[in-house]
Amino acid sequence: MDHQNSIASSTDVLVFKGYPGVGKSTLSLQVARALRAPRLDKDDVKDALHASGLLRDEHSNRLAKEVLCKLVARQVECGVCEVLVDAPFGYAADMQALCAALQPVARSSSRRVYVWVLDCVLKDESEWRRRVEERARRMESAGQHRPLTWAALRTCVDRYGPAVHYTDAWRGNAWHSLSEHLYVRTVQVDMERAKCCEVVQLLRGEVPSLDH
């Protein structure tokens, strides 16, 4: 598959996947600015639901994911070249829901959709803890649903368990076909060293991986 030759009739969906506090939002925002591409954050939807008082806890989390998937599909339908998604997507069902939203849009428009799963990993736990605690100090009231302590974050990690590794099956330099118009690939991103320019270079085929 020649991804670069089909870029004019395709959309790259960059999913910044990973645990809270590893730096997904910071990196995805930098990449979105560099590409001048739309960036959709699940927590923006969840923040609004919490601030309104309409929904709480898992109900708002589920609805936020559903809204996010629909918004991503609408961007693809509009023909954008890239759209960025900032969400933990810790369960296979999360990615399945996104792909289910993208399938009919890709098929009806005969547009190829390439889903880049950027698996954001921060192996240095002391740095991870520092980022979580720093974020907690800056957090507005609407964002209080996020893990605000290291203990809360570890509880979140334990809740996901090994299920979070479902994207390992798509790891590597090859694209995996989910249908005639939908493809997926997982790239591990070392969040201690990852740079915006490297993500852009990966997207353009100038570097094979971000796993330093």
Mean pLDDT: 88
For the termini, the CA-CA separation is 25 Å
| CATH fold assignment | Rossmann fold
Provide the CATH superfamily.
P-loop containing nucleotide triphosphate hydrolases
| Total count of domains | 1
Low-confidence runs: none
Rg from alpha-carbon coordinates? 17 Å
Portion of residues in beta strands equals 15-25%
The shape, in one word, is: globular
Assembly annotation: single chain
Characteristic key phrases:
Rossmann fold, 212 residues, P-loop_NTPase, alpha/beta
Quick gist of this model?
By secondary structure, the chain is of the alpha/beta class. 45% of the residues lie in helices and 17% in strands.
Report on the structure:
The chain has 212 residues and is α/β, with parallel strands linked by helices. It has one domain: P-loop containing nucleotide triphosphate hydrolases (Rossmann fold, 3-Layer(aba) Sandwich). Helices cover 45% and strands 17% of the residues. It has seven helices and six strands, in the order βαβααβαβααββα. It has a six-stranded mixed sheet, sandwiched between helices. A hairpin with a 4-residue loop joins β5 and β6. α1 packs across α7 and α2 packs across α3. The two termini are 25 Å apart.
Give the helix/strand layout.
Elements: E1 10-17, H1 24-35, E2 39-41, H2 42-52, H3 57-77, E3 82-86, H4 92-109, E4 112-121, H5 125-138, H6 150-160, E5 176-177, E6 182-190, H7 196-203
Parallel strand pairs: 1-3, 1-4, 2-3, 4-6
Antiparallel strand pairs: 5-6
Helix pairs in contact: 1-7, 2-3, 3-4
